[in-house]
Amino acid sequence: MRLAVFLEQYEKGGVDTHLLNLITGWEAAEDSFDIYCNREHKGLGLITEQSTGRACIVTYDSVAYDCVKRKLPKPLRFLLYPFFPFFFCLQYLQAKKLLRDKSYDVLLADNGGYPGGWGVLASIIAARNLRIKRRTLLVHHAADPPRRLWGGFERAVDHAVARACTDIVAVSKATRETLIRHRRIASREAAIQVIYNSVSLASNANTDSDINLRRAYGIDAEFLIGMVGRVEQYKGQEDLIKGFADVPPALRDKMAVVIIGGGADTEVERLRSLAATLGIIDRIHFTGFLNGDPKSLISQLDLLVVLTRDFEGFGLTLGEAMAVDVPVLATSVGAIPEFIDSNCGVLIPPASPMHVTAALAEFASEPAPWRERSNNARRVINSFSVEKMARQFRNVFTR
């Protein structure tokens, strides 16, 4: 079986990790993968390096509206907006040219949210017209409601995508629900299959897995609290900083916070300024992006915190923490409650520094129950293996 995977991403993230896990867990040696990835994607190097010997990487220069818009000065960007459908047509023609005459059995259109990468949606429609037998749309995050100005056009694309897909896969029930509620991409729940993400239990030999967080950042606190992921407002780093500041000083002095991940300089500086204003800058450490094995980094934490404010499709860092016996504190949003309950983690409402304060104080006072939950979590996450996920996808492609 010959498979094509079509990506349109710009930042490193969980979509990359999911794809690499899928290829790693693929057990049918006779099958082959071609990965089509836009050159502008910051995760392209990671995909190329870690898929060596398992997949062929085909790069292309994206003609997407968002890609072209980024190259223009901000005052001129609004001039492109009326031409959005034109750019989608260009993406369709580009995908059709890339996929033509390759004799693929399967196209996996690997998207973040929905509509997400419009080139990914265009590839599905192109694959149908090229008569590729299996055409699967994979959605990792929430579906957004159609925009007002282009709502009619977006609904037309939704209809074309639904007709072009032989299969639609969501990484969680919560993601599936947003596709049905916001986009009506399927008329009934059973039309969208859920295949949960996997968590690799093996360490990654291609990363600097020997990074020691405490030594590198001069941390001598009893408890190391960490967040791992891109620094963005919806990720809730601000809620952690505000909540940590209100922990009683006797308990706060036992803890230090490390925020691992890159982000816009303006957002990082805003958070640094907030920590300084609250008088806790000496206990908050921003590392930027670290090319370390995520599980190796997470295993050094005493508590992993995920405070996403609105929606989380699966929460890969949570799964990685569960795999290495690190307690987790997370917001009850999106798919997180689907695999974390009170027996294996602590869930709190989103955008609530007050609940963060209470949870951190409880952890610093009595960590034993949190560690007991992490032991339960390890047993839960063992069922999310890369091999199981890969088999489920192959079943979709071959049925």
UniProtKB/TrEMBL annotation:
Domain Glycosyl transferase family, residue spans: 214-378
Ranges for domain Glycosyltransferase subfamily 4-like N-terminal: 13-201
Top-level taxon of the source organism: Bacteria
Pfam family, one: Glycos_transf_1
InterPro entries for this protein: Glyco_trans_1, Glyco_trans_4-like_N
Annotated signal sequence range: none
Protein name listed in UniProt: Glycosyltransferase family 4 protein
Species for this entry: Geomonas anaerohicana
